[in-house]
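Blackboard transcription, Thursday session:
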Amino acid sequence: MLRIGLAMLQGARHEHEEALLASAIDLGLEIEIVYLRTAKDVDETIDALVLPGGESTAMRKASTSEGLLDGIYSWMDDFTARPVLGTCAGAILLAMPDGARNPFIQAGISRNAWGRQRQSFEAAVVVDLPLHESSNVKVARTADEFGHTPLAVDGQIDNDGSALFPGVFIRAPRFESESVTCDVIARFGDEIVGVIDGSKCAVTFHPELTGDRRFHTWLLQQIVNQGPTN
Ligand code: GLN
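(Written on the board underneath:)
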């Protein structure tokens, strides 16, 4: 049983949980989602972590009473090979940790650099991650009880026939491309919107709000690839 920690700071936590559970089914893995609320929750039994989006300043403040972010950063220092997925504000927290800590990804990032909340947008993103054969990239665009249909440009195909990723950018940060020295795995035009630095993946959009599970699958696959002893 793999234990996946979900930082309960802000943002679309339950959507991350759903995407992880669906990815686990795709991969035939048994996972348990652990809600991380205090530093004590982030112990050596956690195999991987998700840092959701939200508002990074609010997330930093919200975490001070229970020391959650500090606990997460210490866990990352202790278990450097264990995978982490940071989305949007989560990417900011990986690139710009608090205090004297070094960045966990070698990529400069600039907050709110696409403009204000109303300049949020959806765009097709080229992602360099494999699509699992059982993963369903088509979002069921059926309305919920409020009459709202899910976000996401789905089903778009790149020139080489690969599936484009439905990128949902909500007051997103921007990577400063000249500062990126780790692997680029997602681009929107010339813009870098996703990176992998060793065991850490950071994207400036919200994969959990779409039906494309490539990033959540990557996280689970990393745990399996690393083996049990780390
Ligand atoms: N604008 C937020 C920040 O700077 C990030 C937005 C998001 O996570 N959707 O922290």
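Lecturer's comment: Residues 53-56, 88-89, 92, 111-112, 170-171, 173 surround glutamine (CB under 6 Å).
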